[in-house]
Design goal:
alpha+beta; 208 residues; 5 helices; 52% helix
């Protein structure tokens, strides 16, 4: 499994065409990928001014929608691999344990969140931390705390990628087991038909 989480910073062209491509959701400033799947996002809203208040709210809603779309994309892949909908309970529970990490930068503060699937189409959100950005070159303590928060954020991405791969693999195994069971049942039926007792066999058994 790919252990390195890649972060892309889309340029203007990529952001404008992203919604029309095979990616998930609307354009955003930071896209985190692992094993070929999007597993998190980030948004830099900009300075905290009066004119930017509405933008910070709309950006936050948009980021939540993208995080939700990323989780739904995991479900879709599991359904395709599994071949059944609804999914088996163990795979559904695995998907519920997948957290989508995301963050938003507003002014000189960054807020970290995770999106959680509660049940079906119902999702919840938790702000697990916030941190001021360093303002001066000698603001070492703030920089250290910020690095620590991003290390936790990276670990959440690694966890998401790992559980997602396991869920997809288990979905494929479930499908193969179902197909193998169908083959075994067909073979058993054929064997039963080939062992029909003939009249000659009946006469032989009656002499005994």
């Amino acid at each position: 499994m790919e252990k390195v989480i890649r972060m892309r910073m889309p340029d203007r062209d990529e952001k404008s065409s992203r919604s029309q491509s095979g990616q998930t959701g609307k354009p955003c400033d930071f896209i985190f990928c692992g094993n070929g799947d999007e597993i998190g996002i980030g948004e830099n809203t900009g300075p905290m001014h009066k004119d930017h208040y509405k933008k910070s709210v709309t950006d936050f809603v948009d980021v939540i929608k993208v995080a939700r779309s990323q989780h739904i994309n995991f479900q879709t892949k599991c359904i395709e691999k599994c071949g059944c909908n609804p999914l088996p309970s163990d795979i559904e529970n695995a998907l519920k344990s997948i957290l989508i990490p995301f963050f938003q930068v507003i002014g000189m503060k960054i807020r970290f969140y995770i999106l959680i699937q509660i049940n079906g189409d119902l999702y919840g959100m938790w702000e697990w931390s916030s941190q001021d950005l360093p303002k001066k070159d000698d603001d070492i303590i703030t920089a250290v705390f910020l690095c620590k928060k991003f290390l936790i954020h990276r670990n959440l991405h690694n966890r998401t990628a790992r559980i997602n791969q396991t869920a997809i693999r288990n979905s494929q195994i479930f499908r193969e087991n179902v197909e193998n069971t169908k083959v075994v049942r067909h073979v058993k039926k054929s064997i039963k038909l080939s062992h029909i007792t003939t009249p000659k066999a009946k006469r032989g058994s009656s002499k005994k």
